[in-house]
Design brief:
Helix content: 25-40%
Distance between the termini: 40 Å
Bound molecules: S-adenosylmethionine
Shape: globular
Structural class: alpha/beta
Order of helices and strands: HHEHEHEEHEHEEEEHEE
Number of helices: 7
Number of strands: 11
Number of domains: 2
Oligomer: single chain
Largest sheet: 7 strands, mixed
CATH superfamily of the largest domain: Vaccinia Virus protein VP39
CATH topology of the largest domain: Rossmann fold
């Protein structure tokens, strides 16, 4: 099954999926610590968390003294981010909008985009528009760290379907690969009964070369790559890809 162009509008809802749950939530503090070490920001520095979702990293950055702006399309997730910040007694500036429509100009020391929150659009020009918006939002010399699924891994370990036990539900995935990316269909089956929910999403797949090319076209120069938050160099067998880039 192929994803619709606006799939993200119905996918990122708590009734279907929440990125700040289970293992992902438990990993957030360690991931934020890795990012802080790489960005080397001083207290009070401004950081844009693009597609911050329910704020699992944004709150950790704010706890370390950064002035964090979380930006996301999902109103539900932004409300959760605000509640998480209140509980942690930190300030977060939160803004709702589409990542293609960033209006910030020269105001951030750094920006992050985490947990494969990129590559969602059927047209590559929309990915580019997003990256150009990031570059515009950064101060000269500002840093951008992006963490996403590694295209080489996905293509090499491709399975057309599989299932996972997610605790309160089973998740069945059916995947269709194209030259450009993956159309994945998730079927969420609650263990306690109730209706199964199905959604299809698209993710354009990026390896180092393709990501470097897109970043460069947006005015962002790649500085370093890692295979994940362990900090190892990128390899085909690793499922994640992290890139640190600089504006200029
Ligand atoms: C996989 S989640 C990751 C969230 C967060 N970065 C994390 O690691 O928990 C992807 C996020 O991208 C957001 N998103 C999807 N499409 C978007 C768009 N067009 N503009 C802005 N945000 C979008 C979703 O609402 C969701 O919060």
């Amino acid at each position: 099954m192929r994803a619709r162009a606006d799939w993200h509008k119905s996918f990122f809802r708590n009734s279907f999926y929440n990125p700040a749950s289970g293992e992902a939530l438990r990993r957030a503090a360690a991931e934020a610590a890795f990012i802080m070490r790489r960005l080397k920001l001083k207290k009070g520095a401004s950081l844009l968390d693009l597609c911050c979702g329910p704020g699992r990293h944004a709150v950790e950055f704010a706890k370390k003294g950064l002035a964090v702006t979380g930006y996301d399309y999902s109103g539900e997730y932004l409300r959760e981010a605000a509640a998480r910040a209140k509980k942690a007694r930190v300030a977060l500036r939160l803004a709702r909008g589409d990542m293609r429509e960033l209006k910030f100009s020269g105001e951030f020391d750094a920006a992050v985009n985490l947990f494969t929150s990129f590559g969602y659009f059927l047209k590559f020009s929309d990915d580019l528009r997003t990256l150009k918006g990031v570059a515009r939002a950064l101060k000269p010399g500002g840093l951008f760290l992006i963490e996403l699924v590694n295209a080489e891994y996905v293509r090499k370990s491709f399975r057309p379907r599989w299932w996972e036990d997610m605790g309160d539900h089973f998740l069945l995935t059916g995947s269709e690969l194209t030259a450009d990316g993956a159309h994945d269909t998730w079927i969420r089956l609650p263990k306690k009964g109730g209706p199964a929910r199905t959604r299809t999403f698209f993710c354009r797949l990026y390896d180092r070369k393709r990501l470097s090319g897109a970043l460069a076209r947006a005015g962002l120069k790649p500085l370093k790559f890692w295979s994940g938050y362990g900090g190892a160099p990128p390899r085909e067998k690793h499922s994640r890809l992290i890139c640190l880039a600089v504006k200029g």
